[in-house]
Design brief:
alpha+beta, Pathogenesis-related Protein p14a, 6-stranded antiparallel beta sheet, 4-stranded mixed beta sheet, 19 strands, 35% helix, binds zinc ion
Length: 472
């Protein structure tokens, strides 16, 4: 009896001391609030929705006060939080940050804050400092709430981050951002692409498989396109002699391009910003261009005449970056140096004869990019083998990136399958967007343009009087 009395008084004493300490720490108010919440039986779901709205409001009020753009709720991130948060261990904020970036890899910067307390109102106060300090580069947010076991309190997780735009040539032309989200067209690896606007042409290389899967270049106005979309369907009005062979026609076009494009040296690394790319029509109008301009001019015209042709980008000897054209005709491979053009029918420029110093890394035609399986390795001179080259269509990239996001949303089926099937569905039906790319310039050649009589009567490489002002 005495022992029981003693233990009851100890328990009562501890409870009183605890209550006093809580009161001194100001926790009493919180527990009181919790008690009221518990007694009134507030609907938990409605309360947590109101809590999230209040939290977002507080954060955005602070941002408006600091003249920063307001943050938007990211539904993709929120769906992921809703499914993961109930079982998440809250101790290690760094590991939560890592998990967020793995789950939604389009986040460049992520800032995570957790809070626990007896009521949602106390959580709101705990997030106060965090709400005052979100960086100017942040764009989106998401949060999740759960009750602790037994319903005696709440835990909340608040994520603020910089969500990147999907990569496309149009978006880098439009914004000043330097980081974008992309997915490799070879291995599907999602990753962040960083752009240097110092360079007018840039290749997108996958950090996982180390292969290039798209190349973009800017024109003189600073507008970027995929390099293959510089082949715009150029077909100048030209009459070809009917009794000439295809090889003769090939050489005729080659020399006409050379005669109408005075070679201007690539400005080099120091002035790389001025090395903008030109379409065939621009090169024809200006009458000059560097190696890739004349290669595009030549290749585009050859494609319009039904030749199997590609622009090759790579190295020439020790000279560094260079561009040229390769053509396959009657099982023979020709290598056309577009900055020169003195065709000799008796001594054709076959790859086997002239190609030893040309080492390609990338090729393209109107729709596709061809990437070497083993970049940087010894080059054996096969421009057409599927064993050496992987073909990718850069325009399918946007569908691929979108498909990655919808697969990551946790829809049924494995992620890989979901992504593949939706991409194939898009890829089969998609053609380059006429609003941004090929074939628009065909109409820019005036209907009354004079017709070139091919071959042009050339003054031995002299571009004067070659009759190519027909487009003006
Ligand atoms: Zn890859």
């Amino acid at each position: 009896m005495f022992i029981r009395l003693l233990s009851w008084s100890i328990i009562a004493g501890l409870a009183l001391a605890g209550g006093l300490m809580a009161h001194r720490d100001g926790k009493w108010v919180a527990w009181n609030l919790w008690f009221q919440e518990w007694v009134s039986g507030t609907d938990q779901a409605a309360a947590s929705v109101r809590f999230q709205v209040d939290l977002v409001d507080r954060l955005n009020y602070a941002r408006i006060g600091a003249k920063l753009p307001v943050l938007r709720v990211d539904t993709e991130l929120e769906r992921w939080l809703q499914s993961e948060f109930p079982t998440m261990v809250l101790g290690d904020v760094n590991s939560i940050t890592r998990r967020v970036q793995e789950a939604v890899p389009r986040y460049f910067r992520v800032s995570v804050c957790t809070a626990s307390g007896p009521t949602l109102a106390t959580l709101l106060d705990q997030f106060h400092d965090f709400c005052q300090q979100t960086g100017p580069e942040m764009t989106h947010l998401a949060c999740a709430v759960r009750q602790s076991p037994g319903g005696l309190g709440h835990h909340a997780l608040f994520v603020v981050g910089q969500r990147l735009e999907d990569f496309s040539p149009e978006i880098i032309s439009k914004t000043k951002e330097e980081a974008f989200f992309s997915t490799c067209l070879h291995c599907q690896h999602p990753h962040i692409v960083r752009i240097s606007r110092q360079q007018h042409s840039l290749g997108l290389e996958c950090p996982q498989c180390r292969r290039t899967y798209a190349v973009v270049a800017a024109d003189a106005a600073g507008k970027y396109r995929y390099v293959n979309e510089y082949l715009t369907g150029y077909a100048p009005p030209a009459a070809f002699s009917k009794d000439h062979s295809r090889v003769h026609e090939l050489f005729t076009i080659w020399s006409a391009v050379h005669a109408n494009c005075v070679y201007t040296k690539d400005p080099g690394a120091a002035k790389e910003a001025t090395d903008s790319w030109q379409t065939s029509l621009e090169t024809q109008r200006m009458g000059q261009g560097d190696c890739e301009d004349s290669a595009i001019f030549l290749c585009d015209w050859l494609l319009s005449r039904g030749f199997q042709a590609r622009v090759a980008l790579g190295r020439f000897g020790d000279m560094g970056g260079h561009a040229w054209v390769v053509v396959k005709l009657d099982d023979k491979e020709y290598l056309l140096e577009s900055t020169e053009g003195r065709p000799d029918l008796s001594n054709p420029p076959l790859v086997t004869r002239v190609g030893s110093r040309y080492v390609p890394e990338i090729m393209f035609d109107r729709y596709s990019l061809y990437v070497r399986h083993t970049p940087g390795q010894a080059w054996k001179g096969d421009y057409w083998s599927a064993k050496v080259w992987t073909k990718v269509e850069p325009r399918t990239l946007e569908a691929r990136i979108r498909a990655f996001s919808s697969a990551a949303d946790g829809s049924s089926g494995s992620q890989g399958e979901a992504s593949d099937s939706s991409v194939q569905r898009v890829a089969r039906t998609s053609r380059p967007n006429p609003a941004v790319a090929p074939f628009m310039e065909l109409e820019e050649i005036p209907k009354d343009a004079s017709v070139w009589q091919m071959p042009l009567s050339l003054g031995q490489g002299n571009s004067d009087g070659a009759g190519v002002s027909g487009g003006e």
